[in-house]
Amino acid sequence: MSEPIVELRRAVKEYVLGALRVTALRGIDLRIGAGEYAVVMGASGSGKSTLLNLLGCLDHLSSGDYLLGGQSVANLSDAELSEIRSRRIGFIFQSYNLIPQLNVLENIEVPLFYQGVHEAEARDRAQALAARMGLSDRLRHKPMELSGGQQQRVAIARSLVCDPILMLADEPTGNLDSKTGHEILELIDELHAEGKTIVMVTHDDDIAHRAQRVVRFLDGQIVSNERNGAARP
Amino acid sequence: MRPERMVKLAVKNLGQYKLRAGLTMLGIIFGVCSVVAMLSVGEGANREIQEKIQRLGSKNILLKSVKVPQEEGDNASSRRMLARYGLTYVDAEELSRDVPNLVASTPMKILRFDVQYKARRLQTDVVATTPWYLRVQNHRMVRGRFLAGADMEFGSPVCVVGSRLARILFAGYDPIGQTLSIDGDAYTVVGVVGDIAQGEVATSNELWLEGENQNVYIPLRTYLQKRGDLFAQWSQGGSTFEQVELHELILTIDHQENVVRAVDAVRRVLKKNHAKEDFSVVVPLELIRQARETRRLFNIVLGSIAAISLIVGGIGIMNIMLATVSERTREIGIRRALGARRRDIVLQFLTETLILSISGGVVGLLFGALIPMAITALTGVKTVLTFPAFAIAFLVSVTVSVVFGIYPARRAALMDPIEALRHE
């Protein structure tokens, strides 16, 4: 296995909900290598969303350690985690999560401005990515004026704009019809082929076949973590 | 995020809620307006006081003769045709001797006479006085000279006319050297005197002399030689005679700080010489103090009102920003996931607040400049626009907005990004 991008060591995540203590992750170990395409599956409440939030540095572990690209992020401050999110992680959401008042280009540029990238450079990079996503004739459109598939393409472009080491996708095809969903999955396959490390949460077994690795969750624990024979080597 | 980008973004975000942003700005506009208007009115009042200080002289004490109503008891005397009252030459002499730090004493007789030049005739105040008058009253000469010591000595029949009277009476002629008839006596015009505040109409409830620009000034000595102290007054179907030696006496003291002591001496002397209170003592310095005190109260009241309206504006801003923050919870979550630090979120919302308040402030300043003009046009109250008034109003409004904007911005920044992302 190549150098791991993601390495979780006995990761525990607990929530306090009123008087109730909920354990979402019960001490899991997980390694995902550079360039790997992993799918996380499990029923709702199994801890897979918690895992994705932790991998995306949106949340802190209760105990255990998380190394992202070899660097421990378990004890970083909020500002440092923000910095990591902006430079190293690309998010793709089920509901696209574009900012409604911004047009396509501006949406793609958002992460760049939190890194202080100059406007002209940001514009160039956003334009190149939009072109790659086949959105060149939609640059000035607002998200509301786009189809679901187009909105997800904008979101993918936005997640790529900082050239992240880890891409996290949360049911990226959940809101799309099967044909459009298929196109988006093709696009993700393409990114994988280019060497991107991808972690995707999904319910769909068909999607799982595309990945190299399938991690199944149940009650905050990993019940199976196997390489997918059907996937590309 | 780079500042120029931040501003562009804030403008774009505000553009989503144009009506809301406009209404919020109104609060700031009214606040700034009222502060500017308040300070302008206050400054106007201040300038007016300053001018009056100059005109009356803060080192002067003004004494006036006052006609006392006849008492019930002496019916017999009330039928007498002669009324004697007021300040006397003896008063003037004793005051000159007994008042400490006295620089000059300027006696005046002020009488209403018909004055005539050729066919033009009108009634005006004739002031019989001494050459010192010019300096004490801070009048300035427009042409020719004022009364001179020699005029007093020889009782010369010369006069100095006020600039306005000169325009009315001598229209088309050079007044200098002309002969003016004052109640039938001939006087030669030797000068034209102008007032400091020319053209200003004094309101009736004020203490200052009005229409000084229409006065005629003649040497006191000359008048006494011609007419003496007796003066016939025509009233209610008959004539009464009045005997007033001096209508006014202006005492000039060397320094402001000695005025209060001098006033005490003045009151002592007059009390000794007068059985009835047939005189009044006006101390401009005291008037100025009173006016200042009044103005201070006035400023406190206006200032409180303006402050309240600014605070109301600030609360309006807070209200709107809280609503905006909660509506944009999801956007905040997205931005946080994409790498925005808490600081970036705070700055984003504060920038929006600042843009609202600065643009509201600018519009407020424009209207704030118009309101004092309208006040002056409608009520005649003097207002003065000054740079500090603008600066204070603007800075206060921006400060208030930022203070009230911090809470919503912090609330946005402290949101849990995961919760915010889930928000519908």
Description:
The complex is a heterodimer of chains A (233) and B (424). Chain A is built from seven helices and ten strands. Helices cover 33% and strands 29% of the residues of chain A. In chain A, strands 6-7-8-3-9-10 form a six-stranded mixed beta sheet. Chain A has a four-stranded antiparallel beta sheet with strand order 2-1-4-5, covered by helices on one side. The two termini of chain A are 12 Å apart. The model of chain A has no long low-confidence stretch (mean pLDDT 90). The longest helix of chain A is centred in the C-terminal third of the chain and has 16 residues. With 424 residues, chain B is α+β, with helices and mostly antiparallel strands. Chain B has two domains: 183 residues, no CATH class; 211 residues, no CATH class. In chain B, strands 3-4-9-6-8-7 form a six-stranded mixed beta barrel. A three-stranded mixed beta sheet of chain B has the order 2-11-10, with no helix packed on it. The longest helix of chain B has 44 residues. About 5% of the residues of chain B have low confidence. Chains A and B meet through helix 2 and helix 3 of A and helix 1, helix 11, helix 12 and helix 14 of B.
